[in-house]
Amino acid sequence: MVVLHVKRGDEVLFCFETSVKEKTDLVLRDLVALYNGRLKIQRICMEIEELAEHGTMVPPEMMGLNEDQREELKLKDNFAEKCIPSGGFTINKDPLLRRNGQQPNEAMQKVLANAMTDAKAMVDRKLAKDSKVLTLKIVEEALNLLRGAVTIVYPMQLPPHDTIRMEFTNMEDLTGTQASKEVIEPSKAQFWFAGRQMLMGKLMSEYLGHNDKTKVVVKLNQLGEGPPGREAVISDPLRKQMMAEAFRRQEELKINATLSKAHLLKRLE
C-alpha cells in the first residue's frame, strides 16, 4: 500500500494509506474528511475545556450580557436547571459571558480532561513522524470518546444551542469564525503531488506510478488558492548536514594551507 504524507501548508498533518489502483476522487474525499475531522476534534476539545471550567453555554440572546443586563431584559437560561452536571457544581463565572458558570466537580472535570487527552493523541500530527496512518474509523472513535465523556458528565445532554452538542450532531455554524477559514469544503478541495494537481476521474497510478510500496508527500488546498509550494529537493536536516560538512571541509583546507605555508617558509630559511 502507498502511504501518503498529507500536508496543508508546510507541515505533515497525518499519514493515509491507499493503493495506486484507487481513484483520485475517493482518495481526495477521504483526505478531506480526515482533515476536517481533525479540526472538528480540536474545536470540540477547546469548547470542552470551557465546559469543564464554566458549565454549559447560555442561549444566544443572553451571550455577552452581564447579570444586570439579562435581568433588565428579563432573559432567563431555562436549561441551567435541566442540564446539571453529575455530582453537582460550583459557581465559576465565565469572564467571556458565554457559559452559565456552573462548573462540574473535580471528578467530572477529570473525566472530560482524560477524554480530551486521549482524543487528541489519537489524531496527533506527531504520529505522522512514525508513519502511523490515520483512518476515518480512528477519527470517529476519537469523537465517540469525547461524546461519551460529555454524556457521563451531562446525562441529561447539553442544551441544543451548546456548540459542543451542535458539533456532535454536525449542526455547527462556523460562519464568520477563524475556524471557517481552516475547514476545506469538499466541493472545492484539491490535492497535489510533485507540483502537479491530481485531477479527478484518474487512478493514483497515473501520478505515483505502479509501485504500491512507497511513501509520497501530497498537499491539500482549495480551489482558488493556487498551486502549493513544491517540496524541497533535499530535506532540511540533510541541508544542514551538508552545510556543516562543507564548513568542516573549508576549515580543514584553511588549516592545511597554513601548515603548507609554514612548511615552505621553514624550507626557505
Give your account of this protein's structure:
With 269 residues, the chain is α+β, with helices and mostly antiparallel strands. The chain is 45% helix and 13% strand. The protein has eight helices and seven strands; from the N terminus they run ββααββααααββαβα. The chain has helices spanning 24-54, 67-72, 106-122, 136-153, 163-168, 178-182, 205-208, 236-268; strands at residues 2-7, 12-18, 89-91, 102-104, 189-193, 196-197, 215-222. The strands form two sheets. A five-stranded mixed sheet has the order 2-1-7-5-6, with helices on one face. α1 (24-54) packs antiparallel against α3. The model has no long low-confidence stretch (mean pLDDT 92).
Overall number of strands: 7
**C-alpha-based Rg, rounded:** 27 Å
The helicity comes to 40-55%
Q: Describe the largest sheet.
A: 5 strands, mixed
Read across the widest sheet, the strand sequence of neighbours is 2-1-7-5-6
Structural class: alpha+beta
